[in-house]
Design a protein that fits this description.
heterodimer, A: about 240 residues, Rossmann fold, six-stranded mixed sheet, 9 helices, 10 strands, B: about 525 residues, mainly alpha, globular
Chain lengths: ~240, ~525
């Protein structure tokens, strides 16, 4: 579903944020992308979803090249950043309708999906309010509903559980599992190793822009805890 | 005092991007903004000198040269009042980094004082650019007493104080009242517009006072001074201070301005927290129920989003539509309430010919000085991730922004041209110019604004005013608009033997050609630039 080949991204000023990164996320995978602050997780994610351009490498979404067919790729994925800034002058429902129009989701389908997900996240009653009046968690929930509106094949999330209340975090995990059962793929970054350990079937650990470990949970962890492996890799790899 | 200095320094460092210059070093691109501001300032100073000289020369012939300093004073005050009115509430109280700054060990008084100091700095720069060249023109024409120079220079720093206070009070009241309503931005916009138009109408009605006043005041000069004094009551005091050097007027002017300013800062400093809370309050409607959802095309969705952005920000809308609004109001006034002498004026063939020839470029000037597309890329700053992660082509994004500006300007322009045609009854060729040139101007402004903004984006803003009024793109749009719309006016005077319609149609063709070239650039170079942007 997602194939990253030799992705390299250097910022102006010479800082190489992502260095020759290659990984694959298959249909049905929940892939955890782990790394400390400044390791290059967000840069890699922003490149994968087409927000940032990159210097070298290739990214394929569902077999399509992001460089050659960016719109086709973006139609198949959804991205939720760690701190979603949404158009504050729109109401929640107008924002969702805007996203529905962009992805050409039929009106009856978008209504059914909004009803379902807004119900799960207890946001239906607030959809008539301006987004500028939302709390951080409400914006996060709205961004998640918007991301699910077109039923993406690949869901890319940057620190999705930061700012969510425990119930919402649980609901997001359930939705992620359900999507994977339907053959979609999830790629998300996290600092919370416990979450990754419980939720993911595959993980990648990034350090200074390079992938230092990648594979199934069992392959990477072996007989140790993920925390021990992570600390070992970060300190000695 | 140290905190005040640090806060003001922080604001200007962000506005100019000082740290970026230091980090990246000097380059032609990094120097563009200061160079552009410098160039615009020089151009404004030159225009102020030129027009002051022309007006002063005329006044000198009538023996009323002493009217020039109060005219300069009243003009500077009115412009400061108008330009501060719609940004004062936001600039003083609703700034994006308020939460961060309010959590620091800085008093509310220092916070407000820093915002007032920022507003003052921006306005004193404008006041100096108008009053120094204007004062120089007066000095060259009048050869006044040497005392004029120190008194004039002493009073200039006090000139923008009271207009800032008036605009600040009006802006805060409007924003505070509007915050209680669901459609607070619309209420804010309508109220600001009402105050704006009310002030314009008041000053206009005062200027049209009947001549019976002149008899009471004794002379035409005194009548005009009285008129200016009615527009802005401190004008007479300023005139007596700089032309007659009356010590009482000098002292009163300084005390009134500085005293009112100190009182405003003290009072609003104490109420800062409460005003800030009132302004940041937002209407929340719980209990939303799902209704029917309407499906549309991605382009229509983007245009709808652009319009909501526009109508959600009074500063953005006023800045983008003020020209179109002014021509619409003026045209409606001329069409439905024609001045009594209009028919007589139009009966004079030469006057009619010149009036009809001047009308299209004058309309273009008002339409060309602002453009919603000129700020539309920069305003995407925090939302750029969304625009880039959605399955949209860059051309569709650009088209939505260009069409938004066209939809904002074109209907008002065509309606204005229709009303002007009804009022002035031009011949077919003049009517063609009247419709064609402003339409070409709308097309050019829409495309040019976008091309300029892609070349000069500003994403790291805390307040929309910083994008809409103070960014390099905003300066460039205004300046390019003026440079492209005004030349037909001197051409009409310099080439009196050439048929005016020929000049106007020729210039219209030039505008359309430029629009075509810029559209090509927009679809190629600007697309590449936009796709390489990394806010």
């Amino acid at each position: 579903m997602l194939r990253v080949e030799h992705l390299t991204k250097t910022y102006r000023g010479g800082k190489r944020a992502v260095d020759d990164l290659s990984l694959e996320v298959r249909a049905g995978d929940i892939f955890g992308f782990i790394g400390h602050n400044g390791a290059g997780k967000t840069t890699a994610i922003r490149s994968i979803v087409g927000v940032l351009s990159f210097d070298r490498g290739e990214i394929y979404i569902d077999g399509r090249s992001l460089k050659e067919d960016p719109i086709g790729c973006k139609e198949r994925l959804a991205y939720i950043p760690d701190n979603p800034d949404l158009y504050g002058n729109l109401t929640g429902i107008k924002y969702l309708n805007f996203i529905g129009d962009i992805f050409r989701v039929p009106a009856d389908l978008r209504r059914a999906r909004i009803e379902r997900y807004a119900g799960i996240f207890d946001l239906t009653g607030d959809l008539g309010s301006l987004i500028s009046s939302y709390s951080h968690g409400m914006k996060q929930k709205l961004a998640i509903i918007a991301a699910l509106l077109h039923d993406p094949r690949l869901l890319v999330l940057d620190e999705p559980f930061v700012g969510l209340d425990p119930k919402a975090a649980f609901d997001v995990k359930e939705i992620m599992r359900e999507m994977c059962q339907r053959g979609c793929a999830i790629f998300f970054s996290t600092h919370v190793l416990e979450t990754a350990e419980k939720l993911c079937n595959r993980i990648g650990i990034i350090k200074q822009g390079k992938l230092v470990a990648c594979g199934t949970m069992e392959e990477v962890r072996g007989n140790d805890s993920l925390e021990d492996v992570f600390m070992e890799l970060i300190e000695h790899a | 005092m140290r905190n005040l200095y640090l806060l003001v320094k922080l604001y200007f460092a962000q506005l100019i991007g000082l740290d970026r210059y230091k980090k990246r070093g000097f380059s032609l691109k990094s120097a563009f903004y200061p160079l552009l501001v410098g160039f615009c300032s020089l151009a404004l100073a030159f225009l102020a000198f030129f027009y002051s000289w022309m007006i002063g020369d005329g006044l000198k012939a009538l023996g009323m040269l002493d009217l020039l300093p109060p005219m300069l004073f009243a003009s500077a005050c009115l412009v400061v009042l108008f330009t501060t009115l719609y940004k004062a509430g936001g600039a003083l109280f609703s700034f994006g980094d308020y939460d961060l700054l309010a959590s620091l060990p800085v008093s509310h008084a220092a916070l407000l004082a820093s915002r007032v100091a920022i507003l003052y700095s921006l306005n004193i720069a404008f006041t100096l650019l108008v009053m120094l060249p204007g004062g120089a023109a007066y000095a060259m024409l009048a050869r006044p007493d040497p005392l004029f120079y120190p008194v004039y220079l002493l009073l200039i720093p006090f000139v923008p104080l009271i207009p800032i206070i008036l605009a600040g009070i009006a802006g805060v009241l409007i924003s505070a009242v509007a915050a209680r309503f669901r459609f607070k931005n619309l209420i804010n916009l309508l109220a600001t517009l009402l105050v704006f138009l009310g002030t314009m109408a008041l000053s206009f009605s005062v200027q049209l006072l009947p001549h019976s006043d002149s008899a009471q005041l004794g002379s035409l000069g005194a009548t005009l001074l009285g008129t200016l004094n009615r527009v802005y009551p401190l004008t007479g005091m300023f005139a007596r201070a700089v032309c007659r050097f009356e010590p009482l007027s000098i002292l009163l002017f300084i005390l009134l301005s500085a005293g009112a300013f100190a009182l405003f800062s003290l009072l609003f400093g104490r109420l800062f927290g409460r005003i800030q809370s009132a302004l940041s309050a937002s209407y929340q409607r719980r209990g939303y129920r799902m209704g029917q959802l309407h499906q549309g095309s991605p382009l229509m969705a983007l245009i709808g989003k652009e319009f909501r952005r526009l109508f959600g920000s009074p500063a953005y809308l006023l800045n983008s539509a003020v020209g179109a609004m002014m021509i619409l109001i003026a045209s409606a006034w001329l069409c439905f309430f024609p001045p009594s002498g209009l028919d007589a004026l139009l009966a004079i063939p030469e006057l009619r010919r010149m009036l009809l020839a001047l009308l299209p470029p004058v309309l273009c000037f008002f339409l060309g000085i602002s453009s919603s597309s000129g700020s539309s890329i920069s305003l995407e700053g925090p939302y750029f991730w969304l625009l880039r992660s959605l399955p949209l082509s860059t051309r569709t994004i650009f088209l939505s922004k260009v069409l938004t500006n066209l939809l904002l300007l074109l209907p008002a322009t065509l309606l204005s041209c229709g009303m002007l045609s009804a009022a002035l009854r031009p011949d077919p060729l003049s009517m063609l110019c009247l419709f064609l040139m402003p339409t070409a101007c709308c097309l050019l402004t829409s495309v040019m604004g976008l091309v300029i903004n892609v070349a000069l984006p500003k994403f790291d803003w805390q307040n929309e005013t910083a994008v809409v009024k103070q960014s390099a793109a905003a300066f460039a749009v205004v300046f390019a608009g003026m440079a492209l719309e005004l030349p037909p006016i001197p051409l009409l005077f310099l080439l009196p033997s050439v048929e005016p319609a020929l000049i106007l149609l020729g210039w219209t063709a030039l505008l359309l050609l430029l629009t075509l070239l810029l559209s090509l650039r927009m679809c190629t170079v600007s697309v590449r630039k936009f796709e390489a942007l990394e806010p």
